[in-house]
Input
Amino acid sequence: MKKLLWLAAVLLAVPFISAMGTMPEATVTETIPNPAKNIEAVFLDQMGVATECSHISIEGKVYLDGTRGKGAYVLPLENVDRVTFYLKEGVLTARVSMKHSGEKISLTVNPDRRAFGKTRWGTFQIKLGDLKSITITGSSRASSFSPSGPSGRVNDGNS
Output
């Protein structure tokens, strides 16, 4: 009887122990958030690939949030001209240039947060920690996606 109980316990434990060794893969979704405002931008990743997008958001929001000292900041993307990212010792700093004043502010941001957008080919998403910069190229209140959309030009380093 003890052997039977021991065998049953081992058989029940095997699936749980086996699952502990698997690593989750990065999630890529076909659908992305549809923000209330259509903001267009060019994302430049760490490999130098530029991707033009419309309907951009960061985790579905049309603002960049981060900290500076002990304070929390929320910067609407429609007021931003450019964001340049610097990763040092695991800390991601976003150097933000404001559109109208040209003023700059540095924020500490979460490198795992994802930016989303639409290209003429489909959806786009990237972690903030994988970006060199975001350049805002335009914005409007309309949120409908036009098939002509942004030019969809991608710099893959071969052109």
